[in-house]
Structure to design on (530 residues):
């Protein structure tokens, strides 16, 4: 009779972990390596993610042992960018899933899942496409798995953002147009998103909250102590800007695209913009309404040029709940501070706070709304936005506070993470922190300067500033600090505004909505010929 050896407890644990890991490793599918300028990107899918803590990524120069692990912590997304900093280099890669209960010392890659690629020099046009594609992944590969909506940050779990989702919808449209995904894939994802927003997401008088749970659709309060746990009209306007843009793009006569159009039209018609005037005869919109606190937040929108112009434009354009056109001048632009003609560094600004404020003021409303050759009684907004961008560049070049790294190739202050948290940086609130989204999203306004800055960030700072979803959120060289975060409202404008510079796609699609031209005429905007 054969004797069976009794395994020790430690041996049993080891065997259990090895078997579990082998099963996980075998579930990685579709591993692909692609060479770009100075980097090699990996993408894969996993048939099983339950019980997975993340992935380990291993690299070898010749495909033979030893493969060296590249990541310090478990890598969560199923995409990885290995920024080598050199061209004409070939590397081989393996990827392994990590079981949640497995000791890190037991992880090793599956031997039969090896891919390779070679980094290569790219033209400026190819590099722009590459940056757009990498940034697009935030909204595609890292979208919430249930709703498809954009996560607030790259470590936000179930917390999704409505405004960032509006930007993400436009990014998905750009991805379809550029072939990052097929049109059919993009349409399917967009339908998933708008269906969730219509059928599961909390709404208050047709408006969405700032944050939602991406699984349940329930409101995640932005700030209970500040009575912000209900409708957010500004975030709703960013979301609707994106929805109206993709409604025009997905216009084919097939069931999926027709359903996208139907659902978005219904959602658009259900936003009660006029409710947010708060009381009869009011000419000002109010940002928040809470089912628990009502109008207690009492934050009026307008009085100074900022990111909220799109809120008034859409409210006036509404086919079902419009506000009077006079609200534009008597609400949005009512304050004497709105018109602020001044000159900084020899550059004239027409509206905006001193030195222009953070640059996202010139981005968020203008991802879809095309400011070219259009003016109200104050200015041509393309010219004003261009000048505010140039003022930022001139300020960073002059660098009056002596911050490390500022200059004509490293410029642009906006809302972003910084070493002590999150803040809205500007020339009058300068923490020494640069956010790539500022200069990159100014590309339609300052194409030569923005492209030069993109290349500087990429080639000179890329080894620390670049990750799986493109450029990280911000950096501060005074403190040798580089963010490891991505934020939806910073990533989205990069894709959209680079595309507006290249083809005008987002501008064309948004402006093609039949409600937009009559709204501008009703306000009294003037449009000049190209």
């Amino acid at each position: 009779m054969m004797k069976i050896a009794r395994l020790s407890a430690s041996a049993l644990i080891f065997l259990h972990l090895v078997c579990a890991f082998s099963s996980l490793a075998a579930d990685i599918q579709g591993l692909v390596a692609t060479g770009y300028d100075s980097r090699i990107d990996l993408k894969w899918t996993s048939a099983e993610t339950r019980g997975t803590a993340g992935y380990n990524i291993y690299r070898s120069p010749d495909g033979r042992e030893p493969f060296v692990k590249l990541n310090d912590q478990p890598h969560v997304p199923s995409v990885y960018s290995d920024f080598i900093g050199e061209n004409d280099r070939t590397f081989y890669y393996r990827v392994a899933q990590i079981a949640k209960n497995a000791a890190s010392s037991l992880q090793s890659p599956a031997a039969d899942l090896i891919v390779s690629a070679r980094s290569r020099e790219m033209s400026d046009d190819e590099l722009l496409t590459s940056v757009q594609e990498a940034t697009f992944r935030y909204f595609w590969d890292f979208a919430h798995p249930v709703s498809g909506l954009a996560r607030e940050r790259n470590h936000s779990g179930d917390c999704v953002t409505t405004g960032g989702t509006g930007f993400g919808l436009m990014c998905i449209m750009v991805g379809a147009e550029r072939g990052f995904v097929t049109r059919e894939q993009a349409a399917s994802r967009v339908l998933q998103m708008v269906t969730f927003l219509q059928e599961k997401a909390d709404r208050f008088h047709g408006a969405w909250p700032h944050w939602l749970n991406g699984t349940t659709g329930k409101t995640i309060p932005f700030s209970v102590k500040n009575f912000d746990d209900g409708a957010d009209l500004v975030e709703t306007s960013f979301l609707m800007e994106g929805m109206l843009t993709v409604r025009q793009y997905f216009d084919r006569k097939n069931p999926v695209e027709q359903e996208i159009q139907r659902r978005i039209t219904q959602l658009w018609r259900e936003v009660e913009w006029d409710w947010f005037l708060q009381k009869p005869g009011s000419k000002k919109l109010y940002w928040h309404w809470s089912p628990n606190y009502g109008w207690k937040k009492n934050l009026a929108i307008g009085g100074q040029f900022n990111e909220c112009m799109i809120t008034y434009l859409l409210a006036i354009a509404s086919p079902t709940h419009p506000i009077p056109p006079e609200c534009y001048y008597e609400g949005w632009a009512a304050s004497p501070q709105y018109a602020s003609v001044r000159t900084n560094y020899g550059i004239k600004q027409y509206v905006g706070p001193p030195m222009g404020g953070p640059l996202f003021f010139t981005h968020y409303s203008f991802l879809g709304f095309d400011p070219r050759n259009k003016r109200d009684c104050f200015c041509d907004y393309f010219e004003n936005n261009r000048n505010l961008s140039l003022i930022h560049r001139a300020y960073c070049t002059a660098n009056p506070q002596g911050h490390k790294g500022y200059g004509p190739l490293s410029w642009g202050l906006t809302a972003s993470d910084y070493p002590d948290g999150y803040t809205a940086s500007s020339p009058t609130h300068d923490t020494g922190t640069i956010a790539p989204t500022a200069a990159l999203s100014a590309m339609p306004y300052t194409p030569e300067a923005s492209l030069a800055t993109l290349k500087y960030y990429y080639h000179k700072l890329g080894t620390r500033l670049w990750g799986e979803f493109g450029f990280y959120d911000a950096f501060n060289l005074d403190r040798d600090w580089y963010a490891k975060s991505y934020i939806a409202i910073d990533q989205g404008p990069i894709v959209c505004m680079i595309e507006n510079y290249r083809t005008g796609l987002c501008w064309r699609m948004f402006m093609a909505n039949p409600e937009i031209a009559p709204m501008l005429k009703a306000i009294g905007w003037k449009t000049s010929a190209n």
User: Anything to note?
Assistant: The chain has a mean pLDDT of 92. Residues 90 and 478 are 35 Å apart (CA to CA). DSSP finds 14 helices and 22 strands in the chain. The longest strand covers residues 90-99.
